[in-house]
Design a protein that fits this description.
The chain folds into two domains: 8-122, Tyrosine recombinase, N-terminal domain (DNA polymerase, domain 1), CATH 1.10.150.130; 130-307, Intergrase catalytic core (hpI Integrase, Chain A), CATH 1.10.443.10. It is built from 15 helices and two strands. The chain has helices spanning 12-21, 27-46, 59-71, 83-102, 119-122, 130-137, 145-160, 164-168, 202-213, 231-234, 238-252, 260-273, 278-285, 290-293, 297-311; strands at residues 184-189, 195-200.
Length: 322
């Protein structure tokens, strides 16, 4: 282990390179780490500690930073930082300290950065019931090319649990053999460059076949904007698909919070509710860590609790002395 002569802010670029090369984290994750660590460097500047070296960081510094986050008000809205947002800033700092540990740079141990106890409870996943999913999937008018495309997008998202970035990157050539298939599974490279297999239900597969049969163009992308003039313009963007989902959520009368990720949450929640084990769902979703998948147990735990209260409350038992 060695003491570093560089101030902590000067290590951030090296940390982000480490995230890319050695941890294989996505560009989006790296960007988030960079953004969250800017808050820490702002605090260092605010407290005249911009030259603080890794080995000079103390547990009291971390505590003062936590107080800073807890008391920080948005200049635009005047609102305090939510506990969950504070959590993100602290996770980024902990990741930086883990980097120091991996590179044998003397610093405060990562576990000295604790998270607010109630931050986990603040994060809730939003999902649709099966009845709401059905309404959403049936909202597009599949009698025209655009409606058929949108119907296929919705069916694909709910059948596979794909992330939106994974969906928009799909190419037609990956589905060359699909017209002759009764079931279909596809190998993809997901978040963090991790490979996984996604599965198309019979229902989703039938809509995919109908959609592909209408494609007389030579565009590479699976899902296209019919008004696009070039290969790049034709591929639907993540933002375009988010707008499509919002449009049909409004039409179907399902909650307006519905996004592509809501369908992924609904997919996972449905699997768990049907008795699929958490490890299998982790594989289906492509989560690196089982802890990420465990958020869905909050949903089923509540469901089981409600069932227990309804059917096993003890109301039918006679109390002693009666």
């Amino acid at each position: 282990m060695k003491n570093s002569t560089k101030p902590i802010p000067n290590h951030i670029k090296d940390f982000l390179d480490y995230c890319e090369v050695e941890r294989g984290l996505s560009n989006n994750t790296q960007h988030n780490y960079d953004r969250y660590l800017h808050k820490f460097t702002d605090w260092l500047n605010h407290t005249s500690k911009s030259e603080l070296k890794p080995h000079e960081l103390t547990a009291d510094d971390v505590w003062q930073y936590r107080l800073y986050l807890s008391r920080h008000q948005s200049p635009e809205t005047g609102k305090m930082l939510a506990k969950l947002t504070q959590n993100y800033y602290l996770i980024a700092l902990r990741a930086l300290l883990s980097y120091f540990l991996a590179k044998d740079i003397v610093s405060l141990p990562p576990d000295k950065v604790t998270l607010p106890k109630d931050a986990k409870n603040e994060k809730t996943i939003k999902f649709l019931t099966l009845e709401q999913v059905e309404k959403l999937l049936n909202a597009p008018d599949a009698s025209n090319p655009t409606g058929l495309r949108d119907k296929t997008i919705l069916e694909t998202l709910f059948s596979t649990g794909l992330r939106i970035a994974e969906l928009v990157s799909l190419n037609r050539e990956q589905f060359d053999s699909v017209l002759d298939k009764q079931d279909f599974e596809l190998g993809i490279i997901g978040k963090g460059s991790r490979p996984r297999t996604v599965y198309f239900s019979e229902r989703a597969l039938e809509w995919l076949k109908k959609y592909l049969k209408t494609r007389g163009d030579k565009q590479k992308a699976l899902f296209i904007n019919y008004r696009g003039r070039t290969q790049e313009e034709s591929r639907l963007t993540a933002r375009s698909i988010e707008r499509i989902i919002k449009k049909y959520a409004l039409k179907a009368g399902v909650p307006f919070f519905t996004t592509p990720h809501t369908l992924r949450h609904s997919y996972a929640t449905d699997l768990l509710s049907q008795g699929v084990d958490l490890r299998s769902i982790q594989e289906f979703l492509g989560h690196k860590n089982i802890m990420t998948t465990q958020i869905y147990t909050h949903v089923t735990n509540k469901r089981l609790r409600d069932i227990h209260r309804q059917y096993h409350s003890g109301k039918n038992l006679k109390s002693q002395g009666q």
